[in-house]
Specification:
Elements lengths: L1 E5 L2 E5 L15 E2 L5 E9 L2 H10 L9 H12 L9 E9 L4 E6 L8 E7 L2 E7 L15 H8 L8 E2 L6 E2 L4 E5 L6 E4 L9 H8 L3 H20 L4 E5 L4 H13 L5 E6 L6 H11 L3 E6 L1 H6 L1 H8 L9 H13 L2 E5 L4 H5 L8 H19 L5 H4 L7 H8 L3 H14 L2 H5 L1 H9 L2 H15 L4 E3 L5 H9 L7 E2 L11 E2 L2 H7 L5 H4 L14 E3 L8 H5 L4 H10 L2 H18 L4 H11 E3 L13 H4 L7
Parallel strand pairs: 13-14, 13-16, 14-15, 16-17
Antiparallel strand pairs: 1-2, 3-4, 4-5, 5-6, 6-11, 7-8, 7-10, 9-10, 11-12, 18-19, 20-21
Length: 615
């Protein structure tokens, strides 16, 4: 770790060292004039091309790292350089002459970047970091009650804008912040994902045959994997046994002889050890496996939460990813290729294959409800409002993070004739926003917990543009020979599977999505005694009796969320030793066998009474 201190400025950087591992590329990095400084987390995969352009302009380099290319690009082009970076980054660029600081985060949000204003003598100061815990020497970490409340109302957790911590903001993806002493903060987007929409590209791709589409996708995948394999340290690959990781691994194996596979065998009915082993054997590669017991998911909640930095109920398979990263680290690997982005770009989620049918059904039900609700005098009885304001309030509490994404995509679709004709463009862009950000947060935090960098070939800029503009018929392909019960007669991720057929056996390329899945969290029997002396009760300002009544009335989902929030408060805010938290979980949490249902919430008479008669 390198620490730089000077009057009015402090910078600290812990380097992973994947490209140019020599100390000359350590950070903070200065230019030769010592006017500019860069600290930067991530990887820019097109840095050789950017470097060649800078050299043609007369810029000389002292290292072979991508860090120096980022530094010199920002010096030469300022914020215009940000949109040229094909990769992932959270960066801070300091101009010592003006005292300005530029923060920026990559277009997808692959790397985190948090910031906060702090009042100091003489004005305002800027505090920033890749993790919230790095703020603690300068700020007390306190719960953002709006985020906690939205989370308890089934929000997955903040990924853009608001954070789980009062006064600390997550810089939005594709956005930069500029701070100059004595001036207001400037926050602007340098790229929005809706900018991938390209009418000309849609028309061009629409005129290609299926074979031509597959050929182009194949070439884009090869280029993306090649650029993300580049490193002066070892790079391996996640191997889940699914089509995405199988395709990436197969291409990587053709390009490099030093690719190791890493798999988590979640024991039980969701195990994918067989397909993963079959892929390794097919490619003639070594596969390193970690064995995951059901109890591991419970025992690792405190460790996962410490790095996730807020309760993680939205993605419950964090533990396998952390254990894979630790296994990779122990094998001398520093980066792992991952298949995130494929399901979003090429519509691989099972429910999307039947979305046309389910949307039609929902529209019919909605129309019938509207008709019934419009009947004079008895409409509110025939079609009562069973939701109330819950959805709108949850959106308010989470700062409309998802709602604003949906609005942004809707406006972009409405302004694009081509996208308006193909509903799958909107589906793709919707999933590339909030849902993808949660996955990227999971992979980054679980990987970096073991000093492993997750890399995402599907999110290569050129491949992403291809995916957004690709006609839906090449993503969801109707076929009388597809008997998948989740979406009969529809082959999802068609182009991905079609190209995967060129690299792996069909029983691997056509497998359905699983991905280290677990039902453990759906089968947790959490004793009410767990909440005796609960930290979350203190945060919510509930007495012991009130907390007891809350748990008695809570659904299993709310009970789980309260428990996970309690672990977060205990471990991250109160600094409770993880062994103590784990012991409490073992004392009060049991995993029920598969097939057994959890208890439902008890509804007291008081909880079902309406204090005011309906009008």
């Amino acid at each position: 770790m390198v620490v730089h201190r000077q009057s009015g400025l402090g910078l600290c950087h812990a380097r992973l060292s994947l490209v140019d591992t020599s100390s000359r590329s350590n950070q903070p990095m200065w230019d030769e004039t010592r006017r500019y400084t860069l600290v930067y987390n991530g990887e820019i995969y097109n840095f050789p091309e950017l470097r060649a352009d800078l050299e043609a302009r007369g810029v000389s380099f002292n290292t072979t790292s991508d860090t120096e290319v980022v530094l010199q690009s920002l010096i030469a082009f300022g914020t215009d350089a940000l949109a040229t970076f094909n990769g992932m980054f959270g960066l801070a660029f300091v101009d010592h002459k003006t005292g300005s600081v530029l923060l920026a985060r990559d277009r997808f949000g692959m790397k985190p970047l948090f910031w906060a204003k702090k009042t100091v003598e003489g004005g305002e100061a800027l505090v920033f970091g890749s993790e919230v815990k790095s703020f603690e020497p300068w700020m007390e970490l306190r719960t953002d009650m709006s985020s906690l409340s939205a989370y308890l109302m089934k929000f997955g957790g903040p990924t853009s804008g608001r954070s789980f911590y009062d006064g600390i903001t997550s810089l939005k993806p594709g956005t930069y912040l500029k701070f100059e002493p004595g001036s207001d903060f400037i926050i602007k987007p340098f790229f929005q994902l809706t900018e991938f929409i390209d009418e000309g590209e849609m028309e061009r791709l629409g005129g290609l045959s299926p074979v031509q589409v597959a050929d182009e996708f194949d070439e884009l995948m090869q280029n993306a994997v090649k650029s993300q394999l580049f490193a002066d340290a070892r790079v391996g690959a996640f191997c889940s046994g699914g089509v995405d990781s199988s395709l990436i691994t197969s291409i990587a194996a053709r390009q490099s002889k030093d690719v190791s596979l890493f798999h988590a065998n979640v024991k039980g009915s969701w195990s994918e050890l067989g397909p993963a082993s079959a892929l390794a054997q097919h490619l003639g590669l070594d596969m390193h496996c970690v064995e995951i017991e059901e109890q591991d998911f419970v025992d690792m909640i405190p460790r996962v939460t410490q790095h996730y930095e807020y309760p993680f109920s939205y993605h419950r398979n964090c533990a396998p990813l952390m254990l894979i990263a630790e296994k990779a680290r122990d094998q001398g690997v520093k980066g792992l290729l991952s298949g995130e982005g494929s399901d979003e770009l090429f519509l691989g989620y099972p429910w999307l294959g039947r979305k046309t049918v389910t949307d039609a059904y929902a529209n019919i039900v909605g129309r019938l409800g509207s008709i019934a609700g419009a009947v004079p005098g008895i409409g509110s009885i025939l079609a009562p409002d069973r939701i109330g304001n819950a959805d709108v309030v949850r959106e308010m509490l989470n700062n409309r993070e998802i709602a604003d994404d949906v609005d942004l995509v809707s406006r972009a679709i409405a302004n694009s004739p081509g996208a308006s004709k193909d509903k799958t463009v909107g589906w793709t862009l919707d999933y590339l926003h909030y849902h993808l950000r949660t996955l990227l947060h999971r992979n980054d935090t679980m990987g970096m917990a073991a000093s492993i960098e997750a890399r995402f070939p599907f999110l290569d800029t050129n491949l992403a543009k291809f995916g957004v503009n690709l006609p839906g018929r090449h993503k969801l392909r109707k076929s009388p020979f597809v008997f998948e019960k989740a979406h009969p007669f529809v082959r999802d991720k068609w182009v991905v599977r079609e190209v995967a057929d060129r690299y792996v056996p069909r029983d691997l390329s056509q497998r359905i999505k699983v991905g280290f899945w677990t039902t453990v969290f759906d089968r947790l029997n959490i004793s009410p005694n767990y909440f005796s002396g609960s930290r979350i009760a203190d945060v919510m300002e509930l007495s012991s009796a009130q907390m007891k009544q809350t748990i008695e009335a809570a659904s299993p989902d709310l009970t789980l969320r309260l428990m996970l929030a309690d672990v977060w408060v205990a471990g991250v805010l109160d600094k409770e030793d993880q062994s103590v938290t784990t012991a409490r979980l073992r004392d009060h949490v049991r995993i029920q066998p598969e097939g057994q249902k959890l208890r439902r919430a008890k509804r007291s008479a008081a909880s079902t009474r309406s204090p005011v008669a309906p009008v």
